[in-house]
């Protein structure tokens, strides 16, 4: 027999999905200044919704950047307090021409909803809201446990605002644990909790050569070329077998435990299938002495995201640009410290600066790597709730991605996080044609309802 | 006593400059498809002007790309025939934000006219038109020699249309020599003829890794990164001391003669001043075993012009792009053959293709390097004309740039070119704040009038 809240959620599936679509239509791209107003609009829409469903102390909290949305319900005496976290900002949609349907016109195809932010993280964040609504509705405005919810609008740009808030006002978010749905299931129908995340430093290297753009015929052969300089520098940061060449970078890397490694080996994962179906390249790269899951979850990496500058139009322009930029990030694993890694990186990059070039190495944002313990009542309730919905045992995985807030919660609030995500590995996060499986949206809401009910003492 | 034509040119200086400004207002950017109509408009304006000044057989000649403008006057029996060549297309103006005045709003400052195309080549091309107008006007529609004039709209994109026309219809351009004003004076007030040009191949390397853009957290460490691959490849094309590493690339390089080297050494040139005032970088780069002028004029080079793809906005996007592009050119010197060099380049690039990446190496356009003899009556008339105007002996230099049409004229028409240019080294060709010294515009017109008069037998 489904509980009343589950019953309500099932009866309201089409409305929940329609509301999510409305939210996905708002292009709340936090990294692009021209979308500042859209980000705020998304915050205001969510604040109104949290108020409507019956949460209290709803507030749009200003930060140095985009606002956060806060609400709570704290009347379940003697029960645990859950801090629900999500983000309503999204990545830029480019390259636009590769989207089958426009990124901000949510479109259903093959049981999925396609839109920027569908799974990362509007769709998953909204599951929290709809699970809370279902329980509040059927219990006359009451919840079986205490809940605070905080939604940020800067996750995709480093989350500085919420990080500062957590540091400066830990009492405003006091809770027993955090609940985050911003990760994925290891495979379709396989309930998954994420217990480890990579950290990161996101950097820019700006190379400057001549005082102004120069004609490559008139000056080529004597004037420094900042793109060539960047290629020289970047090719010295990592070797062809995936080893990062920054001196000292591996010093504090802690390998996963033998038990964790063994569990990973039993996951349903084929490196060949991953290469052919998910990545779609002729070969995988990286450190061959490690399995692919180890490379993704437990090894640092260094990636180039783009190299702005110079001539990027069609055709030919014979320019030696005065400057060029490289956007470079490193993913970190425990116990690499972001600030220390950035210093090693900056010092090394500057030490290999080519002749005639000046380099400016800048840190854009950073986040800690994290590993979470699984022996607490919240994880136990989560696995039980997931079993109710999926009828399967939960697998524990790590993610190669970064959710810096988990480290902030651990450090400032001294609480663990339950990372219960319902994305799928082929959901195209940060890429064209991002999607979210509609069935997972609804199963996720049900699992969250069961999770809250179990923590509140219901069977 | 100035000739009547010189007198006319002097009296009409302000009108000539106003007309040039009108021409500079047309954004005839040949490489950008959205400016196709502007390129055609420039052609039509020029055709009307050639008709107005009294040339015959004015025609806008269609090509596979942008049109050419042709006109002639062939009634000077027994006299030489000059083929005047120029181009009315321009480079793109980006980066726009570095222009002090807008690129297509010609603005006078400090005795210069600032605009895209001011010196390359609208301003210099228009000197031919105004010199011819001056002579036609004062001699009742007659010229002292035979003239054909051909103006192209594709010089900045490789000039395929005119190259094909020259190959297929050499009789339409039959002449004794060509006159080209698309080069510069070695120093202010120093009359200069250019007698050598570098050739080039302009290429694109496209690198593809994964089938779609990937999240660098989820896939970083196992998925191939096309930007990193390009950096690996590009850093292996040239070493830190400027030596191109493509096997065989130097095999056919012919060094300049001892006499030419000696003449270059006596030119008023300071490497330090060049570095500090023209290039404005902390050091010069390239092959230290050669002088700077040798590096620029007589040595091949390899340059990267831009690396489109990936994330180029402000802020952070954690993407591993599915593809990335590099725009790369090589400047060539005698006797490097463009097609053969491209094949060596392509083979080498493909041979160092990183794992998991596919590379597509494309030739965008190419042109021959060239060295021109100085023992002919046209060069002698040119130096005499320049002496009349500048009261100084002409210096013979080479240019590091490429004017492929000079090779086409040599091969298909069997005629030498006189490259009499009036640009200056700091004119910012292909860069923001391109300019042309207004005094040189007028002195150039006078030198051209004297040149034509001398070839026609006047004193």
Secondary-structure blueprint of this entry?
The structure is a homodimer of 459-residue chains.
Chain A: H1 4-11, H2 13-24, H3 36-53, E1 56-61, E2 68-73, E3 81-87, E4 107-109, E5 112-114, H4 122-138, E6 146-152, H5 160-168, E7 177-180, E8 192-197, E9 199-208, E10 214-215, H6 216-219, H7 226-235, H8 258-265, H9 271-279, H10 292-297, E11 301-310, E12 319-320, E13 323-332, H11 338-351, E14 358-367, E15 370-371, H12 377-390, E16 395-399, H13 404-413, E17 417-420, E18 435-437, H14 438-455
Parallel strand pairs in A: 3-6, 3-7, 7-17, 8-16
Antiparallel strand pairs in A: 1-2, 2-6, 4-5, 5-18, 8-15, 8-17, 9-13, 9-14, 10-12, 11-13
Could you explain the architecture of this structure?
The structure is a homodimer of 459-residue chains. By secondary structure, chain A is of the alpha+beta class. Chain A has two domains: 4-197 and 369-455, 3-Layer(aba) Sandwich (Aminopeptidase); 199-269 and 296-367, 2-Layer Sandwich (Alpha-Beta Plaits). The first copy, chain A, has 14 helices and 18 strands. Chain A has helices at 4-11, 13-24, 36-53, 122-138, 160-168, 216-219, 226-235, 258-265, 271-279, 292-297, 338-351, 377-390, 404-413, 438-455; strands at 56-61, 68-73, 81-87, 107-109, 112-114, 146-152, 177-180, 192-197, 199-208, 214-215, 301-310, 319-320, 323-332, 358-367, 370-371, 395-399, 417-420, 435-437. In chain A, a hairpin with a 2-residue loop joins strand 4 and strand 5. In chain A, helix 4 packs across helix 14. The longest helix of chain A has 18 residues, at 36-53. The first copy, chain A, is globular. The model of chain A has no long low-confidence stretch (mean pLDDT 96). At the A-B interface, strand 10, helix 6, helix 7, helix 9 and helix 10 of A face strand 10, helix 6, helix 7, helix 9 and helix 10 of B.
